[in-house]
Every structure is written in C-alpha cells, then in structure tokens.
C-alpha cells in the first residue's frame, strides 16, 4: 500500500472493504428487517469460532473510498449495518458522517475492543474474552449480544451485563456450530433469568447471507 492510500486509510476516508450486500438482519433487536451490510476487513480479536475468519487480514481487502461505499449503500436501504471483522479497528468518523448526511440509519456490530468512533443510531456490542470493550462502548451500547459456546460463557455474559447501561437490551445467542447443544441450555437460562432474551441467527435458518 502506498503512503498516500495509507494516509487515507488512517483517516478513515478509505476502508478495507471485504463485502457489501443487501439482506435481512438475522440477529438481535432488528432481526427480520431489511438492511444494507458493509463488512470491513481487519480484526485481531481472534475468536476461534468466528464464521468470517477471511475478514481478519485487512491487507487482502481493497482500500475503498468511503464516498463510493456510501453511494452504493444509499441505493438499497435506509438502514446500514457496519460490521466486520472489527470495524472499530478503523476511524469510522468519515463513513458514518456521510451515511448520516444521506439520511440513513447507521448501526454497528462490534466487539467494542477499540475506541468508539463514528455517529451511530444503534450499537450492538458483542464482547469477547480476548479483548474486552472500552468503557465508552459499555455506556453507549443499545444491545448486548453474548455468544454462548460453552458453560463458562454464561458467567462471562453476566459479567458483561453488569457493565452496560441500564437501558441496554440483553441477548444470548448460540454459537452456530454448537447450537444443538447450547440452545436447550440458553432456553433454560433465559427462563430462569428473564432479563435476558434469546437471539438466533435467523438468516442461517432462512439460508440467506
């Protein structure tokens, strides 16, 4: 990457775009609604069960001008979801300012491990044990989505729930490869602890991206 492009990436005026697509939001509070997804490459959080590990290496995803990303997004939906990878690896200020200038609702799905940049209408926080969220994202998260892979994840979920703001909606979501084992455990847990809700990856059941 030449120095000029690197400077634009550092400023968030170009971002390593892995993919972008129009689909149905499958998870959490907005499940079932149409949205345009922007998947940004780059993540060093390193979840062993990640289903988009090809997003981890930002170098294999072409730096793309944010103006081009926004021009494409506004053709499809009034709701845009920025995901990754870990989108907060990069400065989200320029991208979100341009999306908001087009009158779009802008959501993020993040581990919260890096500084919160950008203007967001909805923050879905999904903490990971390897790199915990910043205090700011705990305070501003609209929903907490805890991925349940094993029994210890229930402990971790409660630990994280104690750190978010009082209005944050709490979700437990089975890790897809373990769903047959953990769904019954999640159902029992949520029935015993009704402050939690169940989130499923409904897009996988619908066989859509």
From TrEMBL:
<dbReference type="GO" id="GO:0000287">
    <property type="term" value="F:magnesium ion binding"/>
</dbReference>
<protein>
    <recommendedName>
        <fullName>7-carboxy-7-deazaguanine synthase</fullName>
        <ecNumber>4.3.99.3</ecNumber>
    </recommendedName>
</protein>
<feature type="binding site">
    <location>
        <begin position="49"/>
        <end position="51"/>
    </location>
    <ligand>
        <name>S-adenosyl-L-methionine</name>
    </ligand>
</feature>
<dbReference type="InterPro" id="IPR007197">
    <property type="entry name" value="rSAM"/>
</dbReference>
<dbReference type="GO" id="GO:1904047">
    <property type="term" value="F:S-adenosyl-L-methionine binding"/>
</dbReference>
<keyword id="KW-0004">4Fe-4S</keyword>
<keyword id="KW-0456">Lyase</keyword>
<dbReference type="InterPro" id="IPR013785">
    <property type="entry name" value="Aldolase_TIM"/>
</dbReference>
<feature type="binding site">
    <location>
        <position position="83"/>
    </location>
    <ligand>
        <name>substrate</name>
    </ligand>
</feature>
<feature type="binding site">
    <location>
        <position position="209"/>
    </location>
    <ligand>
        <name>substrate</name>
    </ligand>
</feature>
<keyword id="KW-0671">Queuosine biosynthesis</keyword>
<comment type="pathway">
    <text>Purine metabolism; 7-cyano-7-deazaguanine biosynthesis.</text>
</comment>
<feature type="binding site">
    <location>
        <begin position="126"/>
        <end position="128"/>
    </location>
    <ligand>
        <name>S-adenosyl-L-methionine</name>
    </ligand>
</feature>
<dbReference type="InterPro" id="IPR058240">
    <property type="entry name" value="rSAM_sf"/>
</dbReference>
<feature type="binding site">
    <location>
        <position position="85"/>
    </location>
    <ligand>
        <name>S-adenosyl-L-methionine</name>
    </ligand>
</feature>
<dbReference type="GO" id="GO:0051539">
    <property type="term" value="F:4 iron, 4 sulfur cluster binding"/>
</dbReference>
<dbReference type="InterPro" id="IPR024924">
    <property type="entry name" value="7-CO-7-deazaguanine_synth-like"/>
</dbReference>
<feature type="binding site">
    <location>
        <begin position="24"/>
        <end position="26"/>
    </location>
    <ligand>
        <name>substrate</name>
    </ligand>
</feature>
<dbReference type="Pfam" id="PF04055">
    <property type="entry name" value="Radical_SAM"/>
</dbReference>
<keyword id="KW-0408">Iron</keyword>
<keyword id="KW-0949">S-adenosyl-L-methionine</keyword>
<feature type="binding site">
    <location>
        <position position="47"/>
    </location>
    <ligand>
        <name>[4Fe-4S] cluster</name>
    </ligand>
</feature>
<comment type="similarity">
    <text>Belongs to the radical SAM superfamily. 7-carboxy-7-deazaguanine synthase family.</text>
</comment>
<comment type="subunit">
    <text>Homodimer.</text>
</comment>
<feature type="binding site">
    <location>
        <position position="43"/>
    </location>
    <ligand>
        <name>[4Fe-4S] cluster</name>
    </ligand>
</feature>
<dbReference type="GO" id="GO:0016840">
    <property type="term" value="F:carbon-nitrogen lyase activity"/>
</dbReference>
<keyword id="KW-0460">Magnesium</keyword>
<comment type="function">
    <text>Catalyzes the complex heterocyclic radical-mediated conversion of 6-carboxy-5,6,7,8-tetrahydropterin (CPH4) to 7-carboxy-7-deazaguanine (CDG), a step common to the biosynthetic pathways of all 7-deazapurine-containing compounds.</text>
</comment>
<feature type="binding site">
    <location>
        <position position="50"/>
    </location>
    <ligand>
        <name>[4Fe-4S] cluster</name>
    </ligand>
</feature>
<feature type="domain" description="Radical SAM core">
    <location>
        <begin position="30"/>
        <end position="209"/>
    </location>
</feature>
<keyword id="KW-0479">Metal-binding</keyword>
<dbReference type="GO" id="GO:0008616">
    <property type="term" value="P:tRNA queuosine(34) biosynthetic process"/>
</dbReference>
<keyword id="KW-0411">Iron-sulfur</keyword>
<feature type="binding site">
    <location>
        <position position="39"/>
    </location>
    <ligand>
        <name>substrate</name>
    </ligand>
</feature>
């Amino acid at each position: 990457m030449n120095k000029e492009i690197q400077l634009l990436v550092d400023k968030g005026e170009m971002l390593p775009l892995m993919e972008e697509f129009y689909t149905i939001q499958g998870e959490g509070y907005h499940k079932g609604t149409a949205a345009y997804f922007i998947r940004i490459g780059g993540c060093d959080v390193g979840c062993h069960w990640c289903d988009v590990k090809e997003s981890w290496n930002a170098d294999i995803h072409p730096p793309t001008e944010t103006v081009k990303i926004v021009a494409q997004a506004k053709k499809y939906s009034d709701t845009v979801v920025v995901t990754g990878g870990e989108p907060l690896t990069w400065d989200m200020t320029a991208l979100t300012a341009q999306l908001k200038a087009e009158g779009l609702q802008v959501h993020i799905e993040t581990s919260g491990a890096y500084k919160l940049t950008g203007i967001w209408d909805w923050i879905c926080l999904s903490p990971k044990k390897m790199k915990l969220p910043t205090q700011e994202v705990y305070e501003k998260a609209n929903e907490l989505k805890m991925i349940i892979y094993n029994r210890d994840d229930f402990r971790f979920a409660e630990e994280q729930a104690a750190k978010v703001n009082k209005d944050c909606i709490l979700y437990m979501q089975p890790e897809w490869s373990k769903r047959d084992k953990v769904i019954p455990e999640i159902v029992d847990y949520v029935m015993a602890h009704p402050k939690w809700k169940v989130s499923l990856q409904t897009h996988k059941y619908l066989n859509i991206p």
